[in-house]
Amino acid sequence: MLTKRYAAKFENLDEIREYVADQARAAGFDEKAVYAVQLAADEAASNIIEHAYEGQKDADFQLRCETSKGRLIMTFRDHGRSFNFSQVATPDITADLSERKIGGLGIYLMHKLMDEVVYKVTDSGNYLTLIKRKD
Questions:
Q1: Which residue of 30, 78, 109, 134 is most buried, as measured by CB atoms within 10 A?
Q2: Nearest to residue 109, comparing CAs of 117, 97, 120, 118?
Q3: pTM for this prediction
Q4: Nearest Cα to 128, choosing from 88, 74, 84, 83?
């Protein structure tokens, strides 16, 4: 298990994707699962940067990756603005692009790509846990 700290900047997304890919490969995930983990981590980190820390400078967040019983568990922790995860509407992916509402696609993708997605707010921060099981 390794916890890394990242400045809340979009420039760090490549490093985050590489870190989670390395962890997934080390745990024996195939390349399809590695890609899913990378995309979900990218969406999670982007949401933290864009929404939790919107307008804040010098903010950071932590990402912990661990493997247990054939699962890769990624936990993001930030101290930014929280939100009600359950109230994010599922996007209408069948609607014409010009008619689609902006937002909500990242959370939708996380749910589609990962086996479990859990968000909780505590006194010690906001926690987003993404779990991928080996097929």
A1: 78
A2: 117
A3: 0.87
A4: 74
Instruction: Map out the domains of the chain with their CATH numbers.
Output: 2-133 (3.30.565.10)
Q: Are 76 and 127 in contact (CB under 8 A)?
A: yes
Q: Which residues are bridge partners to 64 per DSSP?
A: 3, 75
Give residue for tokens 């993708």: 109
CA 119, CA 104: separation in Å to the nearest integer?
Answer: 15
pLDDT tens-digit series, residues 35-70: 999 999 999 999 999 989 998 989 999 999 999 999
Mean pLDDT of the chain: 88
Query: Which candidate, 52, 44, 50, places its Cα nearest to that of 132?
Result: 44
Token couple for 64 = 């912990």
Q: Give the pLDDT score at 18.
A: 97
Give SS3 for 63.
strand
Asked if residues 5 and 60 have their Cβ atoms less than 8 Å apart, the reply is yes
Q: For residue 134, name the pLDDT band (cuts at 50, 70, 90).
A: very high
Entry field: residues in the chain: 135
